[in-house]
Amino acid sequence: MIFTSGGPGGEAPGNFSVPQVTCCNLLYCPVKMDGEEVMVTSRRGENITIKMQLTQEVAVNSPQFMQVVNILFNSIATRHMGLEQIRRDFFNPKKAIPIPQHKIELYPGYEFTIRNYNGGTLLGLDIKHKVLRTDSVLEFMNSVARGPGGNQNMITKQLVGAIVMTKYNNKTYRVDDIAFDKKASDSVELKRETTTYIDYYQRNYEMTIKDKNQPLLVCRSKTKVDGVECFLFYRGSTPCDPLQKEILIHLVPEVCFMTGLTDNMRANFKVMQDLAQYTRQKPDDRLKGLLGFRHTIAESEGATAVLNQWGLDMASNISDLEGRQVAPPVLLTKDGKMNIDERKAAFDNITRKNFVITSANMGNDYSVIVTSRDQANAREFMETASKVGPACGINIGPSGNVVAINSDRAEDYINAIRNNAANSKIVVCLVPNDKKDRYDAIKKHCCIDQPIPSQVLQCKNLNPKKKMSVVTKVVMQMNAKMGGELWSVHIPMKKVMYVGIDTYHDSGSSRSVGGIVASMNDACTRYYSKTTWQPSKQELISQLDVVMSEILRAYKSKNGDFPDRILIFRDGVGDGQLLAVKEQELKNIKDAVQRASVDKKIELVFTVVTKRIQQRFFLKMGRGLNNPPPGTVVDSVITRDELFDFFLVPQGVSQGTVTPTHYNVLEFSTTLKPDHLQQIAYKMCFMYYNWTGAIRVPAPCQYAHKLAFLVGQSLHRDPSPDLADLLYYLYLTDLVGGEVS
């Protein structure tokens, strides 16, 4: 038992009628118990006596007190605000927003966390929406079965990895397999009886299972599942040990619903537009929703009573803080310097100019592989490329080698590449659809078996309405993949190596892949990449010392010396992993740097970059609110004493509320000032070659993400070292649908 000194104080009477919060085997109370030990007797069939002992007092500013307050607010959300907890967030299914034309609905809700900041104890609150599809998993399985190749393998492939939800208890599960050898009419042994899935749902939830022969979904839980209303099975023939680390859960597809959006939905402009009406809220509307959380608590007698019992209160408005704006960098192009629009943080009009610093010498030395029926698309692509490419300063001609194949099978594309790559500097594959198996096979061949830069483009993206825009992006990407330099930004510092690190969980194996990308020149236009592997779902990279040593050797080989400074941006880890990152990854990197440069002291900065955060900033404009301008930096009030952290708004948005990026600096062994790091972070957001403007993270982070994504999604093996100096892993998603990679 722990007494929290943040409550109203005083001594508790000898009985136990005081408010309390339990966590694991600890009991927290806002008032101090009478005596060091308390005996409590309860009657549940027989007398049960519990002995509780006072262990410590918890100070208001301690991590334990923050834990108590978070538990309290979680309880308030579910018991007094009518919200349902789904994973870590809280939603209101009773106020679901139906979007029937797309068979989806939105659950409105909140995510929140309470922490101690420089500005005091603050509630970090944001609006959230849960996307739930109105078609059941069984309906989805039947639609896949009716489609092309609709067998059990296809159904399994479509569902494994998906997150489903059971509405009767608002719990979510990850589908790990499908048990086609089991069905809903099967018998199942519960603690006190044997029944069937059908009878169980009818008796407990008044739900009638219509399809008695439907197979069952298999979900694996790696922790003890307590009180979950589903059926638990053991791995093997012996009863499940409650402490066993992995438990199998069987669910009936008819009572499960798909969550999230499919790739086709994300590529559908109309779907995303209809969703944006509710999810992209302007600053004034978002603030209204945030204050609604405070108003609901204030109107609830139960919630107010809980806060009063613990001596807590909420401010009536959001926190005020000051920020400052960092000027955008000067863009460097072939013709010299160019200013960037600081309101938009973009330079879209650059494609109308001869801007490319260095063109890859493609000429007509490229192959376009296409099915016989789509040869007209190949000619259209080459003709358009020969117009937009030279206009940008990229050397590409209209007479590439067109290779017609008989079918759109992956084998035909690979054979065509194998037979024509010797005379090509890059291959372009025009495909009729987004079939993943074919895409993966092409990328595996071009990145591993026969290393050559490759481009995959769907034919539908060459329609007259968007042809010029799409081909311009494709040609720019082809130039970058072949080592060409599109643009740069002015950074006065020389001999600096910028490194991006990210992790992706391999979809095809039990491993996770780490992508590491490092700049190799002062202009940050050339990069060196490397991948590494670790156990499944593990975010931390265990071999960073080996990778960093190789990257440092590559830098020295190209520049004749090691860099004076190394600035590392680490993406893909949360606040809870900062200490582990510092003790493992940062330590490995420091060891590698010290071993490589015995005679030279290299300055090192290691920063964790986080995109998924609760914080939102609003700029006061008269009586209303607006988004803060790009380049806004906030490093007070909502930062933390024990950390060196800051927030940066890198982009301008025309819809909704802008999301800042959070930077946690774990190592700052440098003569640079904090202001310099903030400016560099902003400048590096403009160096991503797939976007003519600022992105949310520094470019090396995004390159590392693209590398890890390609390897984890398609290759499942290390790419050929022959491609390490090229940005071969670039891909982009066109706004109106279709992958360009």
Automatic annotation (TrEMBL):
Its main location: cytoplasm. GO terms for cellular component: cytoplasm. Keywords: Cytoplasm, Developmental protein, Differentiation, RNA-binding, RNA-mediated gene silencing. One of its GO terms (biological process) is cell differentiation. InterPro entries: PAZ_dom, PAZ_dom_sf, Piwi, RNaseH-like_sf, RNaseH_sf. The lineage of its organism: Eukaryota, Metazoa, Ctenophora, Tentaculata, Cydippida. This is Piwi protein 2. It is found in: Cytoplasm. It comes from Pleurobrachia bachei.
